[in-house]
Specification:
Layout: H1 17-24, H2 35-48, H3 65-70, H4 74-87, H5 107-119, E1 125-128, E2 142-145, E3 154-158, H6 171-187, E4 194-198, H7 200-203, H8 206-234, H9 238-241
Parallel strand pairs: 3-4
Antiparallel strand pairs: 1-2, 2-3
Helix pairs in contact: 5-8
Region (Disordered): 1-28
Length: 257
């Protein structure tokens, strides 16, 4: 007796390979990123120079409402980043390493770093994790320093867990807020560097983030100029020291022929 063979090749348990492939293909569900989600993520990633973190989505408005839901699960958000990398392979990938090779402590730090280094002028240096006090574990996230100087003119704290509304949703967020308050007390003492805080909602809006970084740079340049003026006033005037009158005319005279 001849048996009729199926047109589908079957495996050892009589299940066709086509059926197995269909089961292995994950169907689109409410917990997958849509095309609109990926387009939004791509535009934000291109502006920031790094993929956003999931907690930023709560500050991105109605366009990111679905992404905000996906961000509540680490697994769902990981699939979002994987789908983003597949759809837009030329965009920066997620991680703590910046485009210039600098390794940061967190993804929010990387986001701020990518914007900051693009704006800083030649007369300033950006230092990563400068120590603020010897003999004490106290450091800042970033510092804007004069060239060849270790003490920052302006320090930048990156609050990668909280928005500027300071609403805490977990104990770890309350702990980060307590650490910030301790640092603010330290910076409030005379002779300390200036402090600028960048919150999570500021990172969610590239124009806002750029404005905050620009303001911090302007404050550092102003401090640099002020320190230069103070140094010049401390240098003794040799002519004044010996009672000589300084000439107001130019030291170079044109000789008539």
């Amino acid at each position: 007796m001849r048996y009729q063979t199926s047109r589908h090749q079957t495996g050892p348990h009589g299940v066709s390979r086509t059926s197995r492939r269909l089961r292995q293909t994950r169907r689109l569900s409410p917990w997958d990123a849509t095309d609109e989600d990926l387009q939004f993520m791509a535009a934000l990633t291109e502006r920031l120079g790094a993929p956003p973190v999931s907690t930023m989505m709560r500050y991105c408005g109605p366009e990111a409402r679905h992404l905000d839901q996906l961000g509540e699960s680490l697994g769902d958000w990981r699939r979002v980043l994987e789908a983003l990398a597949r759809r837009y392979p030329d965009l920066p990938r997620s991680g703590q390493q910046a485009s210039d090779g600098t390794t940061l402590d967190s993804a929010p730090e990387r986001i701020v770093w990518e914007t900051l280094v693009q704006l800083v002028p030649d007369e300033l240096d950006v230092c990563c994790h400068p120590w603020l006090e010897e003999g004490r574990y106290l450091r800042s996230d970033f510092g804007l320093c004069a060239p060849d100087e270790e003490t920052p003119l302006v320090c930048i704290e990156v609050m990668g867990m909280l928005g500027s509304d300071r609403i805490c949703r977990a104990d770890v967020e309350e702990a980060s807020l307590d650490r910030l308050e301790d640092k603010q007390d330290w910076f409030s003492q005379p002779g300390r560097p200036l402090l600028r805080v960048i919150w999570l909602d500021m990172m969610a809006h590239p124009d806002w983030l750029e404005a905050i970084c620009s303001e911090a740079i302007e404050a550092a340049v102003a401090q640099l100029v002020c320190n230069g003026e103070e140094r010049r006033t401390l240098v003794p005037d040799r002519n004044a020291r010996y009672g000589k009158r300084r000439s107001l005319s130019s030291p170079y005279r044109r000789v008539r022929e």
